[in-house]
Specification:
This protein folds into two domains: about 160 residues, no CATH class; about 35 residues, no CATH class. The strands form four sheets. A five-stranded antiparallel beta sheet has the order 7-11-10-9-8. It has a two-stranded antiparallel ribbon with strand order 1-6. Helix content is about 15%, strand content about 30%. With about 220 residues, it is of the alpha+beta class. Helix 1 crosses helix 4. The chain is globular and about 60 Å long. It is built from four helices and eleven strands; from the N terminus they run E-E-E-E-E-E-H-H-H-E-H-E-E-E-E.
């Protein structure tokens, strides 16, 4: 199943996508602010939080003037440098909303619950295997899995796409899993081409239990 392209025609029909097929008159009702990151789209990086100050940037009690001592271990920023996970920014995209800062509304979830994605989840064969990737995925019930899929699609539909020449989202129904992909094509310059991929893979591991795995990949040509 192909996904509807944005800004071009890299893909085909997107009838499977509940955000594409949501009523245009109610489009603004698709989304609400992400409750986990409060709409920032970011979460503290777990790999480089400063343990000396617990990420606050300060140590010790407040003085009589209400001031605190800046943490010498992190220079008051709350995270230590040299982190490869966040490139020393101290934050990573919110795990719940995939960095969009938005989440599906109750209306969008209800709409998706009666559509093709919910049906496909229910038809997946129960598998105890799936390899290391499946085992590493997050364990969710069916309702939470559908919500996570909508959050993933929302990161494509709702997040600003800057300097993009084209984009697409696709769903592949495989023997034992669902595989969703988004792709964003951008030109940093005349001689620099970049494609950012995001992947969400769903395995069924019980009557109402699923493993959901997320990956990102970037390919660039100069």
């Amino acid at each position: 199943m192909g996904g509807g392209g944005r800004g071009g025609d890299m893909s085909g029909s997107s009838n499977w996508c509940p955000l594409c097929s949501y009523s245009a008159e109610r489009n603004r009702e698709q989304r609400v602010i992400c409750a986990v990151c409060q709409g920032t789209g970011e979460a503290r990086c777990p790999a480089c939080i400063c343990l000396e100050c617990a990420g606050t940037g300060f140590i010790g009690p407040r003085s009589e003037g209400g001031e605190q001592t800046s943490c010498p271990a992190c220079s008051g920023v709350g995270h230590v440098p040299g982190c490869s996970m966040c490139n020393s920014k101290g934050s990573v995209p919110c795990r719940d909303c995939f960095g969009s800062g938005l989440a599906p509304s109750p209306g969008a979830l209800e709409f998706a619950g009666g559509g093709p994605l919910a049906s496909l989840l229910g038809q997946l064969p129960v598998s105890t295997g799936g390899g290391e990737e499946a085992a590493a995925g997050e364990l969710l019930d069916q309702a939470s899995t559908l919500r996570r899929i909508l959050c993933f699609l929302g990161s494509y539909h709702w997040a600003p796409i800057q300097n993009s020449a084209d984009a697409e989202h696709e769903l592949h129904v495989l023997d034992n899993r669902l595989h969703l992909r988004t792709a964003l094509l951008s030109f940093a310059s005349v001689s620099s081409i970049r494609i950012d991929y995001r992947f969400l893979t769903v395995w069924r591991c019980g009557e109402s239990a699923f493993r959901v795995s997320y990956q990102r990949e970037t390919k660039a040509w100069r």
